[in-house]
Amino acid sequence: MPKQYGYELIMDLHECPTTIMTKGGVENYCKRVCELIDMNPEDFHIWASNPEDYDSDSDHLHGVSAVQFITTSSLVIHTLPKMKRIYINIFSCKRFEAKDVSDFTKDYFAGQIVSITMLMRH
Fold it and tell me: Of 3.60.90.10, 3.40.190.10, 3.40.50.1240, 3.30.559.10, which CATH number belongs to 6-121?
């Protein structure tokens, strides 16, 4: 079997209050997760769509997206306020505790984790 390369945590949250799905809320989340799992943050990129640019059939296109590069890889987050959903991927070759991150994430966004997967990457 090939040597394990890294860990990837994938979480889908539903029924999240929209008040935290702001640029500031997402940036703070990324900062706090890096602290929680003892990762060194590097470049941070964030983008927020303009809801007026999308019709009601495009609710999945409106929200805040961010990439927090870390020394060992990245944290990616996409919020969909109109759908009250958040999608998160954390990948690192440095081990971290999925339960710590999922507990923190559930509390931070006050939503329901409807899907959580921890992958071992080879």
Answer: 3.60.90.10
